[in-house]
């Protein structure tokens, strides 16, 4: 949301600027990050590694859920035969296991979010470096993410996705 507001503000500011800034023509480019993510092998590899981690985490959570469900079923099956003190002890045990399960699931979610950042950060830095180099080499004034743009005049803004993808693939090889 903040990113969208910043981009819209930058676009509004860019629209307020004259076509030329101090004798230089305003040059605008954009990058389709969705297309880049789908096309760049680095993102595909990161996504695959992340999905493996998600699957492993889901299996661990499901295993613990099954343990809790088994405890509940065992408790329900023999509840009428237990003393009041034993029922209370078993119920507390089940509640503790449920809380542990919730804490485990939350910690795994946070760990996954951190791992996703660790997997994508180097890719984002590479993209930023390529975009910065391209912007300087070709005198771009602004380069936006196409996903945040409402309108792009194809005659005044250049799609740089292909060039960035090509440079990223050169770096990877």
Structural overview:
- The protein is mainly α and 173 residues long.
- The protein is built from 5 helices and 5 strands.
- It has a 3-stranded parallel sheet with strand order 4-3-5, with helices on one face. Strands 1-2 form a two-stranded antiparallel ribbon.
What would a concise description of this structure say?
The chain is mainly α and 173 residues long. The protein is 73% helix and 9% strand. It is rod-shaped and about 90 Å long.
Task: Name its key features.
173 residues, 3-stranded parallel beta sheet, mainly alpha, 5 strands, rod-shaped
| Average pLDDT for all residues | 87
Strand share of the residues?
A: 5-15%
**Could you give the order of the helices and strands?**
HEEEHHHEEH
Q: What is the tally of beta strands? A: 5
Helix tally equals 5
Strand order of the largest sheet: 4-3-5
Classification by helices and strands? mainly alpha
Biggest beta sheet attributes: 3 strands, parallel
Straight-line distance between termini: 35 Å
Shape: rod-shaped
* Percentage of residues in helical conformation: over 70%
Weakly predicted, low-confidence segments: 1-18
* Radius of gyration using CA atoms only: 26 Å
